[in-house]
Amino acid sequence: MNRWMSLLCDSVAIGLFALFARIAHQTPDMPLNVQGWFFTWLPFLAGVFIAYLVAIIPGKLPSERIRPAGLTVWALAVIVGLTIWGFNNGDIPHWSFMIVATTASAILVLGWRALFKVTVR
């Protein structure tokens, strides 16, 4: 799998993560709509792009592998995403939000790679 296809898969995985988060946490102040989903997705997507710019592309890492590429993408997506979320909301994210965001994004970002590995064999 080439890096562009992996970037697309990671972007979709993080997009699904943001969609699930918006579905779970919709309120009258934060309704489920495209704009809300996009602004939830964007900080974490920035982390995905940063991972590709600083580690995957220059390091020529096999982007479909769980280690080290998947772990790098996942870690940077969570760190950058939660940091931007904190700045946007003027507060440190609640610990339960950090655990759920870390776990859910791991399942999606690492999960597609595990499925890819199983299906390629």
Explain this structure.
- The chain is mainly α.
- The protein has one domain (3-13, 43-120).
- Helices cover 81% and strands 0% of the residues.
- Helix 1 (3-24) runs antiparallel to helix 2 and helix 2 crosses helix 3.
SSE blueprint and pairings:
Elements: H1 3-24, H2 34-59, H3 66-89, H4 95-120
Helix pairs in contact: 1-2, 1-4, 2-3, 3-4
Amount of beta strand: under 5%
**Can you tell me the residue ranges where pLDDT is under 50 for at least 5 consecutive residues?**
none
> Residue-averaged pLDDT, rounded?
92
> What sort of overall outline do the alpha carbons produce when their principal axes are compared?
globular
Q: How many structural domains in the coordinates?
A: 1
How many distinct beta strands? Answer: 0
Radius of gyration: 14 Å
Query: What composes the largest sheet?
Result: none
The class by helix and strand makeup works out as: mainly alpha
Short characterization:
The chain has four helices and no strands. With 121 residues, the protein is an all-alpha fold.
Features:
121 residues, 81% helix, globular, 0% strand
